[in-house]
UniProtKB/TrEMBL annotation:
Keyword Coiled coil: no
Family per similarity comment: Belongs to the CCR4/nocturin family.
Gene name of this polypeptide: NGL2_2
Domain of life of the native organism: Eukaryota
Residue ranges constituting the Endonuclease/exonuclease/phosphatase domain according to the UniProt record: 60-431
Protein name: RNA exonuclease ngl2
Amino acid sequence: MDDSKDTSPKAFVKRQWQTVPASTDSEPEAPALRFTIMTYNVMAPSLGKHSWLPNSTPRNLNGKTRRNRIIGEINHHRPDIICLQEVDDEKDFKPFYRPRLRKLHYRYRHKQPRVKNHGCCIAWDMRKWRLLDFESVVFNVHSHTQGIVEWYLTETGQALEDLSIDPAHTLMVDDLNQMWSSHNVNIATFAVLHHVGAADQAWFEYRDARNELLKQQRAVQRLMRRAKRDGLEEDPKLVASNEKLAILAGSRMPQPDQNFESIIVITCHLLWSPNAHFERLIQVMLVLRRVCHYNRNLRLPVVFAGDFNAAPIDPLYKGMVNQPLDATDCDVLLCSMEDYVQARFSHRYWGVPLPDSLFYYIPEQARKKYVAALIDQLKGAIRFNSAYNQPGLHPPPLDGEPTEHDEPPYTTYCQFVGTLDYIFYTADPQSIVAESPLAAKFPGRNRIILNRPVGDMDTEPLAPVDPWWKQCRPTKILEIPAPSTLEPGIPNARFGSDHLCLLTELKITHA
């Protein structure tokens, strides 16, 4: 049976909303924009192997069964915005998710690297949102992170010849002395979405109607050209229709509402390897570099949701939420940097045995300073809060030990049990640094969005504007189910993926 025709959602757990306590020092209520956003790693079909997930039965690993449970959850909650990861274009998206999302009044953008069998998707309720712009970032395509050798030479004012390098390692050091990029082919995408108000709705409806008139006019003109080509007389009705349609289509379009309610939504799927802390840091910096450059004059609220494959105790998470790193975190990043370089240059043959450290000629203190500088760049770009970092709203830790954070004890429950998925958001306009250390280093053209002030598109930057918003915070989050419903592991009879979906309602208060 063709599962694209099977529209009955299978059994799934109907999780409840939990109210997030409001801050005691919050300001008086002002007009606000409320919306819900979901992130969900739906598990690509190629990864649903029983040998990898022995706690799940073959039936629960079946792609058709899992997809129906997942779309059942989406249909039940109907979030305004959806971020999906591990979406296979040929096996999942085109035959299944695309027609069902369309039926539920969603529009979408899905991107998948050419050499990967799954990618990321952002979908939005077309009745509430309009897409203004969309970009994708494939992690192995760009090289924008300064390597440690170049950084150290710049920091100390030395030349490469001044370092105590074994002559046998000259070729190796030359290779390492370059910009670094991720060698992993995972992907991130971001969309600029505009919330449709009453005036905007009228504007978009007029635009759609005008486009339809233009289409009709082109059809009439084709008929007239065909008649002329065949030597037939012009049909007076066609001529009259063409003139009437031209007048209607050429009428002036009204300006959109000046209340500019737009947001930037990012989703990503970072490298899964447990020890790849350094490469995940590079991947996030690459994404934020694109977003910071885009947003440097607009200062729109940013929501960053996805599968980060990083635990709340990892350096990447601490950098995202602006927490200080301790000596252990720096050591973790240093070891991971060595692993990253070994993997990145594993195909090179330098003709000599490798030293214990590929950076033995750089003092250890300087190496630690380098990774700390990368984290500082991350913190200096956008300061995020985590929507699910809420005390007292989650099941207790499985080992009973207290934690230094208030994230859920797990968002995946299979062979590995832990928290890897997050919904990060910018709490206020000050969280977005207009001249961030990342935004200044990415070349690219300025974008024009609806009614923003503009200059020459190629030479003049967009004029900075006062943010239309002053605060963003979560008001509700979807509960994390108890372990008893997840044992012995997911996917099971009630959950369609090896990850749980996260869902929050955000409230953005107007300035």
